[in-house]
Amino acid sequence: MGPVKQIGGDPVAIRVLLVDDQPLLRTGFRMILEAEQDIAVVGEAGDGLQALDQVRALQPDVVLMDIRMPRMDGVEATRQITGPGRDGPAKVLVLTTFDLDEYVVEALKAGASGFLLKDAPAHELIQAIRVVAAGEAMLAPSITRRLLDKYADHLPSGEEPVPDTLQTLTEREVEVLKLVARGLSNAEIAADLFVSETTVKTHVGHVLTKLGLRDRVQAAVYAYESGLVRPGGQ
């Protein structure tokens, strides 16, 4: 059981902003989320521009973001919410109708912490919000990899020179980054490298810090875009 819902004092619920151009969907999401003790829906928006205004005014922890909307789409809204000079700590969880949607890749690159299908079961939606609010990525790197592989023509061929930023990593950290990008969990990486899971978590933390990345999703995207991991490669 999460903390008691209380917006005006402590303990404070996870503050969620719903962004979708379909009011009926927003109502459905609100009903699901408001039933949880540790989640509070603090506002709604029907497009990206409204979302930016609401983020500034309401300071949500998590923005549940549709991608295709009028005036400003979810990708650009995500970029502005999570980019440099952003107002507040909001993290974006993208909602999509199709799991292999090129806009999802763009949203992840723009700074989204993950994505979820609109028809996902209620418990997955709730868990996703909790995971993202805790600062973690909401999708398995294997899903990220599947997305990036599908749109491999937008990514480097692997022939480009490796970025200078990679030189800040140790050999072991580069190894861990490759495994993260290829879809392995911390436990699987630990087994592969014959180290403890705690050690892997430490390495992943160092990689994110050194490269200025928010989470494992962005680490996977970075590994592909830098040419460290080649699309479709093993």
From TrEMBL:
<protein>
    <submittedName>
        <fullName>Response regulator transcription factor</fullName>
    </submittedName>
</protein>
<keyword id="KW-0804">Transcription</keyword>
<dbReference type="InterPro" id="IPR016032">
    <property type="entry name" value="Sig_transdc_resp-reg_C-effctor"/>
</dbReference>
<keyword id="KW-0597">Phosphoprotein</keyword>
<dbReference type="Pfam" id="PF00196">
    <property type="entry name" value="GerE"/>
</dbReference>
<dbReference type="InterPro" id="IPR000792">
    <property type="entry name" value="Tscrpt_reg_LuxR_C"/>
</dbReference>
<dbReference type="Pfam" id="PF00072">
    <property type="entry name" value="Response_reg"/>
</dbReference>
<dbReference type="InterPro" id="IPR001789">
    <property type="entry name" value="Sig_transdc_resp-reg_receiver"/>
</dbReference>
<dbReference type="InterPro" id="IPR058245">
    <property type="entry name" value="NreC/VraR/RcsB-like_REC"/>
</dbReference>
<keyword id="KW-0805">Transcription regulation</keyword>
<dbReference type="InterPro" id="IPR039420">
    <property type="entry name" value="WalR-like"/>
</dbReference>
<keyword id="KW-0238">DNA-binding</keyword>
<feature type="domain" description="Response regulatory">
    <location>
        <begin position="15"/>
        <end position="133"/>
    </location>
</feature>
<feature type="domain" description="HTH luxR-type">
    <location>
        <begin position="162"/>
        <end position="227"/>
    </location>
</feature>
<feature type="modified residue" description="4-aspartylphosphate">
    <location>
        <position position="66"/>
    </location>
</feature>
<dbReference type="InterPro" id="IPR011006">
    <property type="entry name" value="CheY-like_superfamily"/>
</dbReference>
